[in-house]
Specification:
38% of the residues lie in helices and 17% in strands. It is of the alpha/beta class. An eight-stranded parallel β-barrel has the order 3-4-5-6-7-8-9-12, surrounded by six helices. The protein is globular.
Amino acid sequence: MRVGGPGWVRTLGGTGLEVTAVCVGGGPLGSMPETFGYEVPRDEAVELIEAVLASPIRVIDTSNGYSNGESERRIGLAIARFGGLPPDLLVVTKVDGRDGDFSGARVRESVRESRERLGIDTLPLVHLHDPEFYDWAELTSRGGAVDTLVRLRDEGAITHIGVAGGDTRVLSRYLDLGVFEAVLVHNRLTIVDRSAEDLVERAASEGLGVINAAVYGGGILANPEGGSIQYGYREASPATLEAVQRMAELCARWGIDLATAALQFSLRDLRVHFTVAGISKRRRLGALLEAAGVELGQEFWDELETLVPTPESWLDSR
């Protein structure tokens, strides 16, 4: 795919929102060393976002809970320094529980905090974040988290609502409610894990927005030689580790790196409206755009498919 060419701008399902195929993920921006293994200074994060605002990428993904709001604060600071949010750029965020509280009141407070930190009056798309870690009955009760998110949309604080998480079975259950317009899934639709295949197919057939995140598996697919034995924030199965190594060897024969293949795997799936790629350094932006423009032949993808581990090693089967 040529950056800026056909397929670069897509419509996010039935929302009507125009998005670019690549989105910069804000997870590392607030500095989460416990998750990513390194610190991110504030000035570096702000400079990166300013560069994104001036780039062909027109979507930034973040969350209220990333670094206790620091990701949103840094994005808001970059927007202010840039002179305001460009009219064609979307900042997508998520509502998060706090200290075990994911009540309707907490959702309302989460949205208020996000609007203030980002400096955005009406949030274009807000996800219910990681509902798999909370009680279904509580979140779906009258006046609960889901109900409040719908009310905030009706009130105009939010334009569209989605659900974001990892467990595809839980996400599918939330889609059954019929209120969500988009779904974000992480680590489950990658070159080594296809757990989200059924979820993505369902969402696409129902006209929902489909967002694919963490296509690098938490880092191992971006740096297979880095010594990590984790995939999706947990210990990788032996089959996954073997597949990573063999796929890296395949990429080397084709003159690319595994990170490029991991990104391209998601970009070439037209059911996916945008792919979230988390970066934390300004110099990585150019590399991300370069990887987005790489074209790989069908022969490459056919061989890569022979290396995919069996479903028993996928996250939602373990």
